[in-house]
Write a structure and sequence with these properties.
3 strands; about 5% strand; globular; about 250 residues; mainly alpha; three-stranded mixed β-sheet; about 55% helix
Length: about 250
Amino acid sequence: MSCTCHAPLTRRRLLTGAAALPLATLPAACDRAAVLVSEEQAAEMGAAAWAEIRGSVPESRDAAFRETVASLSQRLIGAAGSDPAAWEVVAFESPEVNAFALPGGRIGVFRGLYDLAETPAELAAVIGHEIGHLQADHARERMGNAVAQGVLQRMVAFLLRQGDIQFDEEIMAALGLGLRYGLALPYGRAQELEADRLGVALMREADLDTQAAIRLWQRMQAAQRGGPPAMLATHPAPETRIRELQEIIGT
């Protein structure tokens, strides 16, 4: 796919045009940003993000938590056709209700999610979903968008400095400067649904109860009454997720 990107006539038009548009929409004007990030680049960025997380969040000393996360991850990684020995899996001692998988074979699960899930299969539903994102290259797409945004931001920053534009720092903040590794950007609805389908397929292949995925999100829905879990900031509403999972599983 190709596109024609028209050059602005003046520096002022470039600056005002960039500032007027949400940054996330700008890479879409041309080819998909995912082509900007190779598997090797994605793995490098994933390793950098992993090092930051490992350096700021302690690993849990709870043997049951660690063993459960390791066992489930091994089964799901194997179901995806990958070698579990090539992956790094860590149970993090944090109250955050969340989990993630990074390019390069890294999985992290937070204590808050382990405590919320009543069965191993419920926990596996989230781990499988995160592996599904990697299978579908969603992380590379998200990283590609972040890289494309970074290029634009550096260009705009240079022009702001060169032109001695007033409020340049405020403009850069409005453009979203500071997103790192593409990991702070939420997945789109279509990506979430695809990851759900892949996650359920992995659970079936690993001989895990797929109904647990529905129960987990029902529990997530109940938990948000006391303050929404972190997962709800980057995932569709529980009622939407439950309905779509019921269609996927066939209940």
